[in-house]
Amino acid sequence: MLWSLLPLAAVASAQTGGLNGRGSTMLRFGCEQVVIDRIDPLVNPGAVPSPHLHQVVGGNAFNASMPEADIAELATCTTCSFAEDFSNYWTANMYFKARNGSFKRVPQVANRLLFNDRFTTKTRGGFVVYYVSPGKGQVTAFRPGFRMLVGDANRRTAPAKSLKSQTCFRCFTGPNFQGDNAAPCADARLDTEALPTGPCLGGIRSNILYPTCWDGKNLDSPDHHSHVAYPTAGPQTFTGSSVGNGCPTTHPVKIPQIMLEITWDTTAFNNKAEWPEDGIQPFYLSTGDRTGYGQHGDYVFGWKGDSLQRAMDGGCTGASCRDLKTISNEEAVKCSVPELVKEKWEGWLNALPGLEM
């Protein structure tokens, strides 16, 4: 299993001093949903509605517009298990298209138990967030006002150079995460950059990984990704203990590796007799993307004070970190923001929200 290979190596690294004897950090923690809504403060600031539906986790400062300010000072609660993380993370939703042309949102299920993290196994519709640091002093935590976007919501074809190590789907071979035998996006058979073409007996998992180099100056950029970059050797695959080697001279500052992990329960839709007659896989992202190449993730930093830097320097593992406070699932689900776009997005729909198909 993946978690008998990868994270235990990360745990051993932390316990034995890790890189340069200073201990690597791999935070892995669950977040409940704070809202599902058709707004996007990065790409479509102020637009109500924005073009497609998102699922959002994190702090309750999330809104159609978010100032380049210290979000941790604006939010009063969070849906993430770490009480000091008021950041927001959001992605597209996933929908099933039936043979009759109607759509139904694919439910998300709680992720597997790792590192005795019960919070993550009890989430109701959220997803898991990872932060990786090679060790003390090896990365610089994000500053208040920082934000970034990874992926291209408009992409519908395979890129000239594969981005599988940065965005992928894992097709579980059976219940209880069967087939989870390699690091995220590293399984040559079960991980694909496009959506899986056949039924996945245990559901589908999304992984989205962010760049690990920053220009050290700009908290954002017009396209929301030019101020960050990948290492000179290319995107860092997920190891749980590394963010890659040298950064380009234009982006010299190493930042934590963030990864989002979403588990979609597609098992109720595995009957191919209910799939569209064209036989092509029936799942769509809420952008209208049937390929999966448009998978993307948005991020607005909102950790309180120096809490993220302390965690990145502290050799923490999983959802347990000596210097960070945690909350319960019951506290997390009480945190929410009101929907701004009053539309139906659950149940059987004639079209994807915002898209006539």
UniProtKB/TrEMBL annotation:
Top-level taxon = Eukaryota
Q: Which UniProt keywords apply?
A: Signal
What sequence ranges are listed for the domain DUF1996? Answer: 40-303
**Tagged with keyword S-adenosyl-L-methionine:** no
Q: Which InterPro entries match?
A: DUF1996
**Signal sequence residues:** 1-16
Q: Where does this protein have coiled-coil stretches?
A: none
Its name, as the record gives it, is: DUF1996 domain-containing protein
